[in-house]
Queue: 3 jobs
Job 1
Amino acid sequence: MNDTSGDTICMQLAALTSAIASTPLASEIIEETRLCFLDFIASTLAAPMTPAVTEMTKLFGSGQAKMLHNSAPASVAGAAFVHGYLSTVEDIDDAHALASGMHLSATVFPAALAITQSKGTMQRDFMRAAVAGYEVAGRLARSMDQGLRTRGFHASGAIGPFATCAAACILLDLDQQQMAHAFGMAASGAGGLFAFLSTGADSRHLHAANASVAGLVAATAAKNGNTGPLTAFEGPDGFIGPYSETCDMAFISTPPPGDDDYEMLNAYHKRFTACGHAIPAITLALELRHRDRVPTDQIKSVELFGYPASAKLTNFPAATVSEAKFSLPIVFALAYLYGDVSPAEMNMSVINRPEVQSLAQKVQVKEKPEHRAAFPDVRSGSVRIRLTKGQTLTLGTTTPIGMQGNRLSFSDIANKILVLAHPVLGDERCTRAIEAVSALTDSGEEFTLF
C-alpha cells in the first residue's frame, strides 16, 4: 500500500481493505479466522429463533442466503440482519479486548456469510473479507474508544457498519475507489446507544443487526455507482464530531498489518454468558472457588474492584436474565456457587435461588485506580473478601479467561459449539460444521459450510 497519510480516513480504510484482499494470509491468521468463524456459529445458534426474530426475518423476504438455524431461504439483507441480531443474544460472542463494546464477529460474519451463500465465493475471499472486517473494526474502535463511550455510543452500532462494509467490499469485488465511497456511505448508518445498560434491554441486539445491513447496503450501493462523502469522518459534518470528538489517527494510518499484529489477534472469546467486562470477576470467583472454597455463610462481604466499564455493572437485584448479564454481584455469585456462568446457570430459576441472592447481596462493586490505569491494554480486576471470623481473602487477575495470556483454543470453541449448537444442529451437523471450518484455507477452493 502506498503512503496514504494525506488521504481522508475513508480513503485510508479503502487502501487498507484493498491491501488485505490482495495479500496471502499467514498461517496464524488463518487459524484465528477459523476460530472466530466457529465462535460466531456457536454464538448465533445458542440463541433461540423466537417469534420476534421470525417476524423480523419475514420483513426482508426470501432469497439465496440461508438461516443457520434451519437452512430456511432468506434474502442477503435478511440473513445478515437476523444473524447479526442472534449472535449477541446470549452474550457469548467475541469482542475486542482493547476497545469497549466492539462485538467483532457479530458485525463481520453475518453479511459475509450471507453474501457467500448467495453468490458463492472462494475460501480465500471469505477469509480475507473476515480479516479486513476485524481490522477495520479494531482500528476504528481503538482510535475513538473513549470518545464513543463518553458520548453514550456502543461501538458495535457505531463502528460496526464499517466492519461489515470492509468485508462486503471484498466479497462484492469493489475496486479501491468504490470502497472509499462505500465507507463514506456506511457512516450514515452508524448508531447504537448504551442506554440499554441499566436493564440489559434487547435493543442492544439491534446494534450488530443494523450495522450488518448498513455496511452491506453501503458496499452494494458503491458497487453500483453510488457515492459517499470521502470526508465522512473528519469533515465539519462528519462522524468524529458527534460520535467521539477526537480520533487517534495513529491507529488508522498505520500500514497494513504484518503476520503478528492483526487486530483479529486482539479478539477475546467467551466461555461465559455475560457481559465481557464481567469476565475478570468471573475469573476471580472461579479461582477463589478452586483455591479457598469458603462456605458462603462464612462470607461477610465481597468487594469487587475494576476499571470504569466493569465498575458500571452494578445491576442488583436483577429482574431479568438480560439485567443479570450486566450484574457483577449476580455473575460472581453464580460462578462461585456453581463453577460456571453458562446458559444453564444464567436463568431466573437459578438466579432467584436463595443462595445466589444471599451471596450477591454481599457484593459491592468499586472502581480502582490501578485497574483504570491498566485498561484497555489489560482488563484486570481484584477482589477482597471479609469473613465472619475476621480473616480477609484477596486475589487479583490480569489474565481473565479468554483474554490475552489466557485465550481459548480452537478445541475450546469446538466444545462450545457442541454444547450450545447441539440442540439446533444435532451431532452430525455440529461435527460437519467443525470439520468444514477447520478445513478453511487461504485458497481458491469453493467455500461450503454444511
Note: DSSP finds 22 helices and eight strands in the chain.
Job 2
Amino acid sequence: MKSRILEFKDSGISWIGQIPKHWEVKRLKFTLNERKENNKPVKTDFILSLTNEKGVIPYSEKGAQGNISKDDITGYKLAYPNDIILNSMNVVIGSVGLSSYFGAISPVYYALYSKENSNIKFYNYIFQTSVFQNSLKGLGNGILEIRMRIPMSNLNNVFLPYPPLNEQKKIAEFLDKKCEIIDKRVENLERKINTLKEYKKSLISECVTKGLNPKILKFKDSGIPWIGQIPKHWEIKKLKYIATKIYKGNGITKEQVFENGDMPCVRYGEIYTKYNYSFDECFSYTFEKVLNSTSYFGYGDILFTCTGELIEEIGKNVVYLGHKKCLAGGDIIILNHKQNPSFLNYALDCNYARNQKSYGKAKLKVVHISSREISNLFVVLPPLNEQKEIAEFLDKKCEKIDRLNENYTKQITTLKEYKKSLIYECVTGKKEI
C-alpha cells in the first residue's frame, strides 16, 4: 500500500464530513434503484427475513412461529442475490443487509440494486454504519423515532458518498477481507462464551444431584427419570414441603418507580434483564404510599418469573442475599424457606428443575407458570452442611466462569466497535486503502 497525501474537501453533509477532493456526493436515487417486482402471481414461496445481527436470512431460520400461506405472500415483493434489503421501519437501528438469496420479502422491506456506476457491496457497507443510520432519524412517519416507516421518496433524497467506481470496488474488497477477520474473531469468542455457559450448566447440575465427591458416595434411584441416581443419604421433596411460604408479588408500574424512592423493589422484567443468580441490592425504588397492595421479600428468599416469551426462560429464579426489606412486583412468585439459599437457588435453576418448569408448555406462544406449579417442583436435598459446601464451591467456580465470559464479551464489544469505525472511515474516504 503506497502512502500518498490526500487532499480533502467538505462534503456538505454532516454525517459524512470531509471526503477526498476527487470524490462526489450523490442522492441515493442516482446510485441505487428500488426493485419493485411483486410476487403476484406467486413466483416463489421462499420467504426472506431480516435481523440486526445476521442480516438477510431465510424466514424459517428466524424462529418465528406460524407458516405463511401462498395467499399471504401475493402482496410480498421479490428480492434477488446482491440486493440490499432494508426494513423501512427499523433501518435506523441496523435492520439492513445484503441478500444472498432469491426470495419474497415483506411489503415493509425495500430491495435496492446498484446502478451502472455503483458497487452494491460498497453501498451496503454505508448502510452498516451507525453514523449513517442515525442520520436517517426524522425521515419517517410514526410515533416512535426508531419505529418510523421511512418512505422511499425520502430515502431516495439522502446524500451518499460517491467515489469513482474502481475505488468503490477496492474499498468493498478491503472491507470484505478485514470484516471477515473481525467476524471470525467474534465467532470464536462467542463459541468460547457458549462453551463456558454449557459447562456452567453441566457443573451446577452435577453438583446439586451428585455432590462434590460422587466417587466415594453410595447412590440410590431417585425414582424420577430426569434426575436419575442421587446420593443414598439425600432426599427428594416437593418445594411446597420445604417452603415456609409461597406467594405472589403485586403490580408495580413504571410510573410507580422513582429514583428517590425509599423502598427497594424488583419488577418481573428486571429478573430477565438485570439480575443473574443472586443479588443483594435492587436496581429500582418506589414509595409504599403509592401502591395499593404490597408483597415483601427478604434475605434468602427466591424469586421466580411467572411469564415469559421463551420456554427455556420460564420460571427463571434468582436469590436475594441482601438485608433490606424489599417489594416484589406482579408476575413474580416468592419462595420463603429454611434451606441454604444459594444451594436451593442453584438446584432450582439446574437442568432437572428447568425440565419440570417447561414441561407441557412447548406449544405456547406466551409461557406462564403458576404458584401451584412452582410448589410442585421436585428438588434434591442434601443435608444443610453439604448444601453449604456445594453452594460455596459453585459460587467460586461460577464467579471464575462469569469473569471469563465478561472478559470475552468486552473483547466482542471492542471488535464490533472497531469494525463500525473501520467501515465508516473507509466509506467516507478518511482511511487510505
Note: The mean pLDDT is 92.
Job 3
Amino acid sequence: MNKMDKKIRLKYVIIILILCIVPQCFIAMQQYPLLVGDDMGVISLPAFLSGRQWDDIWRSVAFYGGGYHILLTPLFILTNNPLIIYRGVLLSYVLLEAVIAIIAFYILRHYYQCDEVYASVLSILCSYFTYTKPTYVSNEIVLLLGLWLVILIILKLIEYGEEKRKKQLLSILLCFISSYLITIHLRSSALLIAIVFTIITYYLYKKKSLVSPIVSAVCFPLLYFAAQKFNNIVQSTIWITDGITEINNSNIIDGAENIVKLFNVQYWHAWAAIFLGQLSTVSIMSIGMLCPVFIWSLVFLYKMIRKQELRTKKNMSTAVIIILMSASIIITLGGQSITWLDHAYDSIQMGAYNSNDDPNINFARVFTYLRYFSFYTNPLLIIGLVNLKGNTKKNKKIMKWGIALYCFLQVLWFLLVFPYICNIRSVADVYIPFSIENYGIGYAGSKVYLPAIILCTAFFLLIVLLYHRKKSLMGLVILCIFVIYQYTYYGIVHENPWWDRGDGSYNLMRTYINELPFDHIYVPYEAMAYEFQFLFNDISVNISLPDNNVEEAVIFTNLYPIEGERYWTNLENQGYQSIKIDDNEYVFIKGEKFVQWFSKILEMQQ
C-alpha cells in the first residue's frame, strides 16, 4: 500500500470514528441511571471490588459474568457519583462499538476489496445495528466485539493457513478470545459450540484443519478452565452468602427439561411462535434486508458444495462466516425456544387477554425479545450486503426471494403471534420507533404494530428497487439512516422517562450524600430498590420492610398512591411519618433523629 492509499484509508477511518463516536457519546451523556436486576448483576463485580456493600441486592440479582466490567473497577473507586459512573460505563461501550466499526471496515477492504465509501457506510451500519444499545448497562456490546474479533481471527487463519508459526499464534488467540467470552456471559457458550462446529465442517470440506490441532488441544482446555474458575470465584465471593447456593443465570442448561415437551403437540404452536416471532421482529429491525441476506446465505452455501471451482480463499472466508453465524443463531434461538417454552405456552393460553395489567406480562416477551440471538445477525447482515452489491441477475433473483420470505414471515406473524401480544406495548420495542405511539404502558394494537410494519415494508421495497437500479449505495444509506434513527430513538425517547422512579429522592439528598445520618435504607420493591442502590451506592439497600419493632428506619417508595390503603397505612400506624418528595416518590421516616434531619433538608430546599 503506497502513501496515498494509506492517507485515503486513514481519512475514511477518521470519518467512521467521528460518525460512530460523536453521536453515540452525545446519546450516552443524555442517559440517567436506569437499573434493573440484570444491570445490577452486570456491575456487581466492580461494585464489590470497590468496597460497596450491596449484600441484599446481590441475593436477588442474576449472575452476568464480570470479565469486562472488572476493568471498570477504577471508575467505581474514583467516584461515588452515580451519574459519572453510569455514563462512564456507557461511554466505554461507545468506544467498543467504534472498534467494531473499524474491524468491519478492515475486513470489508482487506478481504472483500470493497470500495472505501461503501465499506464506510457498512461499517457505520455495523456499529449501530444492535438490539442492545449503549443506553443501559449490559454485556451484549462486549460480546459483539468478541464476535467480530473471532471472525477476524478465523479469516486470518484461512489467509495464513500454510504458515505454521502464524497459524499457531492465531490458534492461541482464538482459544483465548473464545474462552474469555465465557467470563462475559455464559450465553457465549453457543458461540463456542458454533466455533467447534465450524472447525469440524471446515476440516470435512477442505480435508485440512482450520486451526493448529495440537496447540488448540493444549491451550483451549486450560483457558476454558481458567475462565470457569474465574466465574466460580466471582459467584462464590459475591453471590453465595448466608447459605444461598442457587444463582440465577449461572447454568447454561436451565430449562432443559422442556425438551420432552417438544414431543407434546400442545406445545408446537408455542414453539413455532417463538421462532416466527423473533425472526419476523429481527426482519423489521433490519428494515427487511436480513431476508434477502438469509436467502443469499443459503444459495451461497449450496453453490459452494456443488461447484469445485468456487472454493477460492475469498469464498471459503465467506462460507465460514455464514456457517459460524448460522450455527450460532440456530443454537441460541433453539436453546431459548426450549428454556422459554413454558412462557410462550402460558402466553398463548392466556390468548388475546394478554395485557400490561397482567402479572405474567413477561411471558409474551419471548416472541419479540431479540437480545439473545440478534447480535449474530450483525456480521451476517454486513457480509451479506457487500455480496449483494452487484446488480447481477442472480442478485435480482435473490432480492425477489427475499421479498417473498419477508412477506411470508409477516403473514405467519400476524396469524400465530400478533393475537397474543396485540395488547402489550412494552414488548413492542422494535416496532415502537416506527409507530404512531410512544413507548410505555398501555394498549398497543394497530397503532403500534401496523404502522411499523407498513413503513418498514415500504422502505424495504424502496431499498430493493434501488439495488435493482444499480443504486445500492443509496439504498444502503437509507438503511443506515433508519438503523441510526432506531438507535437514537431508544437513546433519547425510549429510556429517559424511566429516570423518574428515583430522581426526586436523589435530587433531594445528593447535596448531603456524604453526611447521611443512616447507613442503610429500605426500598420494599425490587425494581425501585435496584435504582436506589445505584443512586445511593455507598449505603446498603434492603429489599424489604423493616421489622415492626425497629426504632429508627427510612423507607423510600414510589408505590404509595397505588398501595396506600392496603400497604402503607400500617406504617403510619407504627409511628412512621410520610413525606411526599415529588409526584410519585415518598419517604417514610421513623425515629426522632431521622425526622429532624429530613425536616431540616426540606426547609433548606424550599
Note: Strands lie at 520-522, 540-542, 553-557, 577-580, 586-590.
